TrEMBL record:
Signal peptide interval: 1-22
UniProt name for this protein: Lipoprotein
Keyword Signal in record: yes
Keywords on record: Signal
Length: 157
């Protein structure tokens, strides 16, 4: 009986220690980053032939002091017929932002405001608990297109 109790106490200690780990492993965080980035890029309003995922967060990228992170990058374009450049960028940042918010990200408002900035805006979304960060930059390459570049990264570990 005493041995069984000691084994149970030892097992509970292992479970408790595991439950207090620092969160997702780098591989898990990279997989979450890729899934979230691909979900944003799968959004219906993108101009299909313009979508290009250039880094899928599948491999380690050095980030100093012997640490590594995972990175997701993609570009795409959205169609627009709105004649007002400010409204074009407002709509794009709002719509792309909704996609990140639906996946549990919160907007990082610690930097300077991007409201009414032309011709390019950069907005940052973070998922603190998972250690994930996305920034997206929208610009106006033509009167009928909005270009978007999405960059995501995990914490350096």
């Amino acid at each position: 009986m005493r041995v069984a109790r000691n084994c149970l106490v030892g097992l509970l200690a292992v479970v408790a220690a595991t439950g207090c780990s620092s969160g997702l492993s780098l591989q898990e965080a990279g997989a979450q980053l890729a899934a979230d980035g691909k979900a944003v890029m799968a959004w219906d309003d993108w101009v299909d032939e313009s979508i290009n995922i250039t880094n899928t967060a599948a491999s380690d990228v050095p980030c100093g002091d012997g640490k590594v992170k995972r990175v997701f990058t993609a570009v795409g374009q959205l169609p627009t017929l709105n004649p007002d450049p400010d409204n074009k960028l407002d709509g794009a940042t709002r719509d792309i932002g909704y996609s990140f918010a639906e996946r549990g990200y919160e907007r990082d408002v610690s930097g300077p405001s991007q409201a009414d900035v032309l011709p390019t805006r950069t907005i940052v979304w973070v998922k603190e608990a998972a250690g994930l960060r996305f920034s997206f930059t929208v610009s106006l390459p033509s009167d009928t297109r909005i270009a978007a570049q999405i960059n995501g990264e995990t914490r350096c570990e």
